[in-house]
């Protein structure tokens, strides 16, 4: 097998250097599209049904017709991972409305563009999972349509770059004084034995977030989907962030100030254990 990266583009696997998209693709001109990042573990697409649910929902919300059936998208994810020898990694899936002369109105007859790229990924650094990470807070300046996983991520990019500039792992966004979510993760805090996370109300319906809510509740742990004011969030007993490539990552400093004892707490470690258990089930097939 060639070492060259193979890209899925509109039904074909082509070498990365030959994967071309028109300058008039509406994803380029308007960020008119959606995406998913699917984790591959043991050669299997992790939580693929939940990803497909969200992908189909996003396409309906933007009125983009999927060029493949649900099973066809799943098969294309598998083919893309296999063609690149990726058994531990991710497949990035992007769907745009397609190519049309630049005009704001939805074009008639445009053919959607579907792209997939597979890359190796072994998981987040073990040291970050063990010791925890630092985050900064930033205003949530995104549009009012965050439930759809669109490719219009510039506000997320800006606050994430701010985090990187401060030597931090993530930026936690705040809207009207309430913590919403991270630039590319969901956020949880623990107060008095109860875990809190913002409801799915103009935030991304994170698959890992939903899993963790259900898994913790299954262990008898109280979880409330309630927005938490920033001051209370900073003063919480525990804080963590979650996502497909973030997994369940402890947060030990916010804006330079230590969170509680400065080490990952009991419920954080419980969440990490539940996530790892589910990951290993998928890895074993």
What's the architecture of the largest domain in CATH terms?
A: Alpha-Beta Barrel
The CATH topology of the largest domain comes to D-amino Acid Aminotransferase, Chain A, domain 2
Category by helix and strand content: alpha+beta
Number of domains: 2
| Unreliable spans | none
Q: How many DSSP helices?
A: 8
Count of individual beta strands? 16
Biggest β-sheet, characterized?
Answer: 10 strands, mixed
Proportion in β-strands: 25-35%
Net shape: globular
How far apart are the termini? Answer: 24 Å
Helix proportion: 25-40%
What's the CATH class label of the largest domain?
A: Alpha Beta
Mean pLDDT reading: 97
CATH superfamily of the largest domain: D-amino Acid Aminotransferase, subunit A, domain 2
If you compute it from the alpha carbons, what radius of gyration comes out, rounded to the nearest whole angstrom?
Answer: 19 Å
Features:
29% strand; 285 residues; ten-stranded mixed beta sheet; alpha+beta; D-amino Acid Aminotransferase, Chain A, domain 1; D-amino Acid Aminotransferase, Chain A, domain 2; globular
Explain how this protein is built.
The chain folds into two domains: 6-120, Aminotransferase class 4, branched-chain amino acid transferase, N-terminal domain (D-amino Acid Aminotransferase, Chain A, domain 1, 2-Layer Sandwich), CATH 3.30.470.10; 126-283, Alpha-Beta Barrel (D-amino Acid Aminotransferase, Chain A, domain 2). 31% of the residues lie in helices and 29% in strands. The chain is built from eight helices and 16 strands. Strands 7, 8, 9, 10, 11, 12, 13, 14, 15 and 16 form a ten-stranded mixed beta sheet that branches. A six-stranded antiparallel beta sheet has the order 2-1-6-5-3-4. Strand 1 (6-9) and strand 2 (12-15) form a beta hairpin.
């Amino acid at each position: 097998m060639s070492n060259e990266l193979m890209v899925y583009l509109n039904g074909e696997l082509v070498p990365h250097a030959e994967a071309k998209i028109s300058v008039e693709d509406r994803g380029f001109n308007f960020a008119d599209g959606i995406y998913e990042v699917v984790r591959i573990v043991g050669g299997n697409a992790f939580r693929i049904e939940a990803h497909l649910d969200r992908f189909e929902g996003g396409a309906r919300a933007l009125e983009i017709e999927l060029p493949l059936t649900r099973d066809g998208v799943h098969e294309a994810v598998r083919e893309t991972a296999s063609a690149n020898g990726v058994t531990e990694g991710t497949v990035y899936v992007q769907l745009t409305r397609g190519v049309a002369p630049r005009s704001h109105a939805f074009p008639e007859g445009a053919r959607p563009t579907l792209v997939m790229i597979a890359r190796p990924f072994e998981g987040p650094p073990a040291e970050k999972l063990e010791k925890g990470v630092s985050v900064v807070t930033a205003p949530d300046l995104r549009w009012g349509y965050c439930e759809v996983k669109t490719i219009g991520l510039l506000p997320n990019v800006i606050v994430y770059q701010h985090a990187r500039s401060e030597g931090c792992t993530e930026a936690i966004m705040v809207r009207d004084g309430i913590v919403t979510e991270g630039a590319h993760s969901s956020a949880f805090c623990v107060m008095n034995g109860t875990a809190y996370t913002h409801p799915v109300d103009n935030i991304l319906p994170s698959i890992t977030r939903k899993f963790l809510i259900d898994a913790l509740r299954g262990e008898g742990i109280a979880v409330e989907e309630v927005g938490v004011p920033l001051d209370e969030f900073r003063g919480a007993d525990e804080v963590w962030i979650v996502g497909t490539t973030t997994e369940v990552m402890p947060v030990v400093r916010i804006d330079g100030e230590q969170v509680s004892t400065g080490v990952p707490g009991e419920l954080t470690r419980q969440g990490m254990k539940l996530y790892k258990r589910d990951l290993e089930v998928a890895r074993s097939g």
